[in-house]
Write a structure and sequence with these properties.
This protein is an alpha+beta fold and 427 residues long. It folds into two domains: 3-154 and 305-376, Periplasmic binding protein-like II (D-Maltodextrin-Binding Protein, domain 2, 3-Layer(aba) Sandwich); 157-302 and 383-426, Periplasmic binding protein-like II (D-Maltodextrin-Binding Protein, domain 2). The protein has helices at 11-16, 49-66, 82-92, 103-111, 118-121, 131-135, 161-166, 178-191, 205-211, 228-242, 255-263, 274-283, 285-289, 319-330, 332-339, 355-358, 364-376, 389-403, 409-426; strands at 39-46, 70-77, 98-101, 148-153, 157-160, 269-271, 291-294, 306-312, 345-346. The strands form two sheets. A six-stranded mixed sheet has the order 2-1-3-8-4-9, with helices on both faces. It has a three-stranded antiparallel sheet with strand order 6-5-7. Helix 2 links the parallel strand 1 and strand 2.
Length: 427
C-alpha cells in the first residue's frame, strides 16, 4: 500500500494468530525453489488496485509469458482491516501464495511458520537488494529473512525560510545536528513570543533510533530505549515543550494536523516527501515561495526508511513459482518501472544510480527525489519489527506524561519499556 497510509501495525495479528496456523494448500512447506516454475498461485496486494491496475495486469502478463506453465490470480485488499484479513486467512489456511506485507506484519507470520525463509529459498538473490532493505524483514530472535524488500520511501525536512529569517536565523543554513536543531528551536520560540514552534510532533520510536538510542536487545527479547541517550532526548523535548518550541498540540498531533500547522506558518519545520511540494504550491503559495529543503537530522548518519515487502507463504504448494513471482515483482526492472509511476524508490542495488534518481532538472520535485534516493542507499528501518501499534501507543502516552511534567523522562521511558516488554511476552 502507499506508505503515506500505512495500516495499523500487526498487534491484532500477533494476538489472534495461533502458532499452529496453516497456510494455503494441504502440503508444501518446502524451501526448495529450484524446481520447474509452474502452477496456479495467488498474489495479494494492499490497497493498490484503484491506482495501479494496468501496471499489475501488465506485470502478471509478463511473468506468465516468461513462464508459460503458470497462472497468477491477483487479489487486492483495502487498507482498513488488512492485519485482520491476514490473521483470518492465516488461521483459516487460506493465506495467498505471495503476499504484500510490511515488516511488522511479517513478524507474527514468521513466528507462526507461515512466512518462507528467503535466505534458504532465495539466498542467491540477496545481493540484488540494498543491504538495509533486505535486513528489514528479519525478525529478532529468529534466523532468516521473511520477505523480499519491495518499494521504499523516505523524505527530507521542509522548513519555512521566512520564519527562520524572522527569528534572526540564516534561512540558508538550516540545522544539521540535534544541538543546532534544539538551539534554533528555542531561539525561534523566544523571538516569536511562543507563537511559532519549530516542531509539531512528539518523539516516536523512529526519532529515538535516529538519535542513536539502542531500541532493543539483539536477541529480540526486550526493549532498551530507556537508556541514558533515550532519557537525554526526551529531556531535551521537555525543554522544547516548556518553551513552546514544540507545538502545544503535539501531544495529540497526527501527520495531517502537523502538515496543516506547517501550511499555516504555525510550525517552522516538518518532515515530508516530494508529494508534499504540489500541495504547498496549490494550497500555500506563500509557503512554497519560501520553502527550504534539508536532510533528516540523525546522530547515526543513516536516515529512516519505510519499506514494503513481498512474502512467500511457507505452505504454498508451488514454491518455485511463488518464489519466482515474488522475485519478479521486486526485481530491478519492475521496481524501476513502478517507481516511475508513483513517488517511491526501488530497493534493488544500483537502481538508485539511475539518472532518474541522480540528475537534477532545476525543479524542487526532482531535488527532493535525488536527495532522498541518495540517502536511501544507507538508510535503515529504525522501527523494530516487533514494535506493535499497542507499543507505539504506550510510548506516546508515556512521552506525553513526561512533557506535561507528570512523570520524569526516566520514569516515563521505564514505564514505556515495561509496557512494551509485557506486550512482547504476550505475542
Amino acid at each position: 500500500m502507499p506508505l503515506s497510509r500505512r495500516a495499523l501495525a500487526a498487534a491484532s495479528l500477533a494476538l489472534v494468530l495461533p502458532l499452529s496456523a496453516c497456510g494455503s494448500g494441504d502440503g508444501g512447506g518446502s524451501t526448495d525453489a529450484s524446481g520447474k516454475v509452474e502452477g496456479d498461485i495467488t498474489f495479494q496486494t494492499w490497497n493498490l488496485r484503484a491506482n495501479f491496475t494496468p501496471y499489475f495486469e501488465g506485470l502478471i502478463a509478463d511473468f506468465e509469458k516468461k513462464y508459460p506453465g503458470t497462472h497468477v490470480k491477483w487479489v487486492d485488499q483495502p487498507a482498513e482491516g488488512y492485519p485482520d484479513k491476514l490473521s483470518a486467512d492465516a488461521a483459516g489456511g487460506t493465506l495467498p501464495d505471495v503476499v504484500n506485507v510490511s515488516p511488522d506484519l511479517v513478524a507474527p507470520l514468521a513466528k507462526a511458520g507461515l512466512a518462507m525463509d528467503l535466505d534458504k529459498a532465495a539466498g542467491a538473490y540477496r545481493s540484488e537488494y540494498l543491504a538495509g532493505a533486505w535486513a528489514s524483514h528479519q525478525v529478532p530472535g529468529m534466523s532468516g529473512t521473511y520477505a523480499f524488500p519491495w518499494y521504499l520511501n523516505t523524505g527530507p525536512l521542509f522548513y519555512n525560510k521566512a520564519l527562520f529569517t524572522q527569528a534572526g536565523l540564516d534561512p540558508d543554513q538550516p540545522p544539521k545536528t540535534y544541538d543546532e536543531l534544539f538551539s534554533d528551536a528555542l531561539r525561534m520560540a523566544r523571538k516569536s513570543g511562543g507563537e511559532v514552534a519549530t516542531l509539531a510532533n512528539v518523539p516516536t520510536i523512529e526519532d529515538f533510533g535516529r538519535y542513536g538510542v539502542t531500541l532493543m536487545n539483539k536477541q529480540g527479547t526486550a526493549f532498551a530505549f530507556n537508556d541514558a541517550k533515550g532519557v537525554e532526548l526526551l529531556t531535551r523535548y521537555k525543554k522544547l515543550y516548556d518553551a513552546r518550541a514544540l507545538d502545544p498540540q503535539a501531544l495529540t498531533a497526527t501527520p495531517e494536523s502537523s502538515g496543516k500547522k506547517f501550511l499555516t506558518g504555525a510550525v517552522a519545520m516538518n518532515p515530508g516527501s516530494a508529494l508534499d511540494l504540489g500541495n504547498f504550491k496549490k494550497n500555500a503559495p506563500g509557503l512554497y515561495r519560501n520553502i527550504g529543503i534539508t536532510d533528516q537530522i540523525t546522530s547515526t548518519g543513516h536516515v529512516n526508511m519505510y519499506v514494503m515487502g513481498v512474502m512467500v507463504n511457507a505452505r504454498t504448494r508451488h514454491t518455485p513459482a511463488a518464489v519466482a513471482f515474488a522475485h519478479f515483482v521486486t526485481d530491478a526492472r519492475n521496481q524501476m518501472s513502478f517507481a516511475r509511476k508513483v513517488a517511491i524508490f526501488p530497493s534493488t542495488s544500483g537502481s538508485l544510480n539511475d539518472p532518474y534518481f541522480t540528475k537534477e532538472d532545476g525543479t524542487d520535485e526532482t531535488r527532493v527525489r535525488v536527495a532522498a534516493a541518495k540517502s536511501l542507499k544507507s538508510a535503515v528501518n529504525y522501527t523494530p519489527v516487533l514494535f506493535s501499534d499497542q507499543m507505539k501507543t504506550a510510548l506516546r502516552n508515556e512521552v506525553a506524561k513526561a512533557l506535561q511534567g507528570r512523570e520524569s523522562p526516566r520514569q516515563a521511558l521505564d514505564n514505556a519499556v515495561d509496557a512494551a516488554d509485557r506486550l512482547l511476552r504476550q505475542s
